Amino acid sequence: MTFLCRSDELDDPGSLGLDEQGLFVVKRDGQVFAYRNNCPHLGVELNWLEHQFLDADNALIQCATHGALFVIESGECVAGPCLGQALEAVAICERDGEVHLA
Ligand code: FES
């Protein structure tokens, strides 16, 4: 199992970039989600700033390039140029205060 991060490294809500794995993780309401750091629009990384994947309200995942917005829990794009597409989810498991690839 590949270690990704400690659970307490993640704010709730909050996000963390995992450059080595090309992934990022997002936490909301105690639940953690992981996605490939790849915008469905142009295939670029979503973030310009390290660990900054959420919009100003911490309500949605936001692509920094053209502002596409994605639902935290599903990765579905709900606004922007890739409307209707989705981020690629990555299966993870959280145990003993650590997040691992499932
Ligand atoms: S590259 Fe993400 S919205 Fe265009």
UniProtKB/TrEMBL annotation:
Alphabetized CDD domains for the sequence: Rieske
Domain Rieske: 2-101
Parts of the chain that traverse the membrane: none
Cross-referenced Gene3D superfamilies: Rieske [2Fe-2S] iron-sulphur domain (2.102.10.10)
Pfam family, one: Rieske
Gene Ontology MF: a single term: metal ion binding
Record keywords: 2Fe-2S, Iron, Iron-sulfur, Metal-binding
Protein name: Nitrite reductase/ring-hydroxylating ferredoxin subunit
Taxonomic source organism: Litorivivens lipolytica
Classification of source organism: Bacteria, Pseudomonadati, Pseudomonadota, Gammaproteobacteria, Litorivivens
